[in-house]
Amino acid sequence: IAMAMLGGTLKRRERFSARLGDVLSYLYMASAVMKQYKEAGEPEADKVLVDWCCHYLSANIQHSLHQVIKNFKQPWLRVLMRVMIFPLGRHASEAPDHLDKRLAKILMTPSETRNRLINGIFTQPIPTNPAGMANHTLLKVIAVESIQKRLRKALGNKEIDGLTYEEQVKDALAKSVINEVESKQLMDVHAARMEVINVDDFDPDEFIRVKTKKSKRDVA
């Protein structure tokens, strides 16, 4: 219909053709998701990933098609296309919150599903590989989770005090909430976590424009 109504102008209407291209891309990604799930043997644990992806892709396909229809100038054509494409209305929606939570748990917990998800990704924890460093740090955070819960509980009960994390750990050690080994583990993990989440910072002097003398050629 787009080609019939717009003809050669479809190529020049970039946003219009881009939305149609988006639909094709989302369909391709949905096919890839289903193919991966099939070839993995359709593991039940991976169904959360499939459900989330299909919700996300279907909602985006619906949105792109709606935008295409909305931008036809002829009212009768918009009505016709809505009846043809969305005869029962637009029902696709993004994943509900409970599915988001289940997906987040998979991403943050070591499991066979997570291993399949990151298969092929370079995860060596070297300074030049942010993904590898993040994955390595996650495993270290999980390892001290029980100690961290004890620290949070003591902080919530006002058994310990401290403005910064370092101060809280020191106070917990002084009051025997944690021992020396646990204190070192917490500080090591905290340092690794901050290394991953911190962004580059620059001294204000680095942003000061340096004045240079203009050569005669530059002036000319």
C-alpha end-to-end distance: 58 Å
Radius of gyration: 27 Å
Number of strands: 0
Helix content: 55-70%
What value does the average pLDDT take? 87
Number of separate helices? 12
Strand content: under 5%
Sheet/helix structural class? mainly alpha
Please sum up the structure shown:
The chain has 220 residues and is an all-alpha fold. It contains twelve helices and no strands.
Q: What's the helix and strand layout?
A:
Elements: H1 2-6, H2 9-12, H3 14-39, H4 47-70, H5 75-85, H6 97-107, H7 112-117, H8 130-143, H9 145-156, H10 165-174, H11 180-197, H12 216-219
Helix pairs in contact: 3-4, 4-5, 4-6, 8-11, 10-11
Which structural traits does this protein have?
220 residues; mainly alpha; single chain; 66% helix
Task: Give a description of the structure.
This protein has 220 residues and is mainly α. Helices cover 66% and strands 0% of the residues. The chain has 12 helices and no strands. α3 (14-39) packs antiparallel against α4 (47-70) and α4 runs antiparallel to α5 (75-85). The chain is elongated and about 75 Å long. The mean pLDDT is 87.
